């Protein structure tokens, strides 16, 4: 897993034997065990790392009015009961504009207003809730819907 894994050697003397993984990948999910021996004592602990991913299809860049699909997947073992999507912190209701099914969100005609922070929230049969964020960027025209620009002859127009 190198060079994505590090241990803070200066923190070991204080009893902190944390492992840092950056960036986390889907294949990093699983059980991790730490074992430390010091002055005839040994300690160990186990931590399970769950990984949740949000992917975009087709991949970036997204062009305004071209359909897109956001998918939310988790390494969690329990049955998925519910998926909720949030855009810029607000719950997104299912509609013609946003269709949610089995961890995916379909946006048939994305607009510039759909750009921003998207969060999927997954609720499982063991009542655990996990979530992940995705920052959606959309290429398009962000201006008046019926633009008319007047410019004097001989001048520049943008």
Automatic annotation (TrEMBL):
Keywords: Adaptive immunity, Cell membrane, Disulfide bond, Glycoprotein, Immunity, Immunoglobulin domain, Membrane, Repeat, Secreted, Signal, Transmembrane, Transmembrane helix
GO molecular function: MHC class II protein binding; protein tyrosine kinase binding
Domain of life, per lineage: Eukaryota
PROSITE patterns in UniProt: IG_LIKE
Pfam families named in the record: Ig_3
Topology term for the membrane: Single-pass type I membrane protein
Ion transport in keyword set: no
Domain spans labelled Ig-like: 50-131
GO CC annotations on file: external side of plasma membrane; extracellular region; membrane raft
Entry's Gene Ontology BP terms: adaptive immune response; interleukin-15-mediated signaling pathway; positive regulation of ERK1 and ERK2 cascade; T cell activation
Localization: Cell membrane; Secreted
KW Secreted (keyword) present: yes
InterPro entries documented for this protein: Ig-like_dom, Ig-like_dom_sf, Ig-like_fold
Function statement: Lymphocyte activation gene 3 protein: Inhibitory receptor on antigen activated T-cells. Delivers inhibitory signals upon binding to ligands, such as FGL1. FGL1 constitutes a major ligand of LAG3 and is responsible for LAG3 T-cell inhibitory function. Following TCR engagement, LAG3 associates with CD3-TCR in the immunological synapse and directly inhibits T-cell activation. May inhibit antigen-specific T-cell activation in synergy with PDCD1/PD-1, possibly by acting as a coreceptor for PDCD1/PD-1. May function as a ligand for MHC class II (MHC-II) on antigen-presenting cells (APC), promoting APC activation/maturation and driving Th1 immune response.
Quaternary structure note: Interacts with MHC class II (MHC-II); selectively recognizes stable complexes of peptide and MHC-II. Interacts with FGL1 (via the Fibrinogen C-terminal domain).
Family stated for the protein in its record: Belongs to the LAG3 family.
PANTHER family: MICROFIBRIL-ASSOCIATED GLYCOPROTEIN 3 (PTHR11422:SF12), T-CELL SURFACE GLYCOPROTEIN CD4 (PTHR11422)
Protein's recorded name: Lymphocyte activation gene 3 protein
Organism of origin: Antrostomus carolinensis (Chuck-will's-widow)
